[in-house]
Amino acid sequence: MQRRLVKQGYGTGTMMISLPSKWIKENNLEKGNLINLEFSGNDLVISIKESMKKLETTIKINGFSEDIIENLIKNIYKLGYDRIIVNFSNEQQFKLLQNIIRTKLIGFEIVKKDSDSCVLENITEPSEEQFDNILSKIFLNSDELFEILERKMKSEKIAEDFYEFWELIKKYDAFCRRVVAKGKLYDIKSEMLWSFITEFVNSLKELYYVNEILSKNKNLKISKETLELLREIKELTGKTINIYKEKNIDEIGKIQEIKNNLLKKGHNMLITKRKEEDIIVHHLMSCVENLYQTSEVIYGLVL
């Protein structure tokens, strides 16, 4: 029996094949089920052993703060668990769980509730195709962050909410890590892919800190030099995204050169008399460092 390979996703080199309908029916498989892939020399063995098992855990959130509860649930989600039994102490905690599921996690729902416990379960199995689409959304929303900050620095009135885009990025980030943790793509390079997502989102977190400063100091006058630094970092971010998409490691050397020039510019700005902007410049320089780390990880994804 033969099957033709079909290209899937961009820049990943991944191919797809269709599975025989007879095998699907005999094994009672449905959309979203996991299958197991194993390498045996030049052969690829497809099976359902072990792969149909769902990861499950039980946690207690009694006495935890809202931040701890949110981080706990999100990290269990990122690790690839499919079913989470949560023991809580009051209705307020349950409502918090409802909000976390609705706003922070993709594909999860509360499927059962008792007086002091509930069950969170994965109802939509993440796929590689979804991964590419969601990662692209992170890239697109990063551009929005830069646009909003630039307009804020120019004291323009804006309707867009920085925090709305930032929350979306965190939501998409959690989903992408979950896909990687479940071993659904890249296999031996999954740690490198996890690192790529981590470093890129960390670079955007520095923009979050800049936004916090601008929001709390609305009368702060931003110099042309700082505004130009932000624009150049936006360009660097775009170059980093393109390198990832095209897997063109020859361009990574240019990223290093840009990084060194931007850091030099930032250091020179820090020794001038614009003390009120020092903390903003500091976060922008940290953004540059994280972007460079992001580009370096691409070596591991390509090799």
List the helices and strands and how they pair.
Layout: E1 6-7, E2 15-16, H1 21-26, E3 36-40, E4 43-47, E5 56-60, H2 66-78, E6 83-87, H3 91-104, E7 108-113, E8 117-122, H4 128-153, H5 162-181, H6 190-216, H7 224-246, H8 252-270, H9 278-302
Parallel strand pairs: 5-6
Antiparallel strand pairs: 1-2, 3-4, 6-8, 7-8
Overview of the structural elements:
- The structure is a single chain.
- The chain has 303 residues and is α+β, with helices and mostly antiparallel strands.
- Helix content is 57%, strand content 12%.
- A 4-stranded mixed beta sheet has the order 5-6-8-7, covered by helices on one side.
- The longest helix has 27 residues, at 190-216.
| Number of helices, counting only DSSP H or I runs of 4 residues or more | 9
Q: Oligomeric state of the chains?
A: single chain
For the CA atoms, what is the radius of gyration? 23 Å
Number of strand elements: 8
- Main sheet specs: 4 strands, mixed
Question: How are helices and strands ordered from N to C?
Answer: EEHEEEHEHEEHHHHHH
Major β-sheet strand ordering: 5-6-8-7
Distance between the termini: 33 Å
Low-confidence stretches: none
Strand content: 5-15%
Estimate percent helicity.
55-70%
Gross geometry: flat
What is the residue-mean pLDDT, rounded to a whole number? 87
Structural class: alpha+beta
